[in-house]
Amino acid sequence: MTGDQTGSLFGDTPSGGSRADRTEPACSHIVRVALESGADSEFDYFLSDDLWPVRAGQRLKVPFGRSNKTETAFCTCAEVAREDSFIAVERRSRLKCVLEVVDDQPLINERLMELARWMSEYYVCPLGQVLAAIVPAAVKHDAGVRTERYVYLVAPVADDGQGVRGDKQRAVIQCLQRAGAIDKDRSVSLRAVLAGAGCTEAPIKSLAQKALVRIIDKTVLSALPAVPPSLAGRTRPVVLNEDQAAALAHIGGQLESGRFAVTLLHGVTDSGKTEVYIRAIEKTLAMGKGAIVLLPEIALTAQTVQRFSERFETVAVMHSGLTPAQRNVQWRTI
Questions:
Q1: CB-side exposure of 103: number of CA atoms within 13 Å?
Q2: Which residues contact 239 (CB under 8 A, 6 or more apart)?
């Protein structure tokens, strides 16, 4: 990024006076953003400390133009506001502040950001529009996302159970201890605690008031799996025949060379081509890379995903038959 690629959006200072005259939140970071609406340039904003951290690929709400219209934008760069930051020191007094961070995690990773920049330059299209087109609508609208309450122990409970009254409160504590719910990251869903302790919410709320447990809200994805679990199964280990082994050795050599190459596997149905694909993907994953499998028709999805799920821990599926919630889950899996 260079300074001449970044637009100026700051306009006149509001009637409240200069930035120094107004009460502003502490802002020790600067972000550069690309607007979804398609402005040709990227723009710089201050980010208040209470919104940090933010990473490239997350969406933000920002005030834009003289009317301070709220716009959605993708963060393309974020850093501490040092003197050697990407924005000139003399321009900082004119920066506006980010209003809101939309996403908890980046929707665009580093490689997708690189691809988006190439597309923007090659097709002469604003970067913000490219990024907006890359992210599916189901992901933008949080399809299938819901909020669920979780519980965890704030501090170890004394052996004498000090502060714990009644069998129900004791059952809640024991349930959380068995689950190892000792911090936010290992919290247990409230529904699971209610079922495990055989109680209502009342004893849990009482424990929360005593600061023995904490109840938090978590955002979770709820969607039917792309392939029903009933299709899952296990196959016996396959021993490659001579032709399969030769094909795999050829593909393995191409993978290790690091050069682009095309290989055509020719064989009738059930001749063992899929097993060669799977073994080649195993080699690719072992090299720290990823793989995409394209199918000629959607009708083959279920049986293919079943076959690949038997060999790989995580398989994401994308096709036109997914519901918005399923599409959101699969995108985030990828």
A1: 21
A2: none
Specify the residue for token string 């301070």. 68
The residues pairing with 31 across neighbouring beta strands, listed in sequence order, are 45, 78
Average pLDDT, the chain: 83
The DSSP string of 224-239 is: --SS-GGG--------
21, HSE (Cβ side, Cα atoms, 13 Å): 6
Which residue segments constitute the domains of the chain, with CATH numbers given? Answer: 3-135 (3.40.1440.60), 145-221 (1.10.10.10), 229-316 (no CATH)
Please give the full DSSP string across 166-220, using - where no structure is assigned. HHHHHHHHHHHHHHT--SGGG-EEHHHHHHHHT--SHHHHHHHHTTSEEEEEEEE
CA–CA separation, 163 and 207 (whole Å): 8
pTM, whole model, 2 decimals?
A: 0.63
Q: Which of 329, 297, 303 is nearest to 316 (CA)?
A: 329
Q: Are 93 and 20 in contact (CB under 8 A)?
A: yes
User: Tokens 């723009």 correspond to what residue?
Assistant: 43
Residue 78: closest CA among 53, 59, 99: 53
Report pLDDT digits (tens) over 211-259.
889 999 887 776 666 555 554 555 666 889 999 999 999 999 999 998 9
Identify residue 133 by its one-letter amino acid code: A
Round to whole Å and give the CA distance between 153 and 181: 6
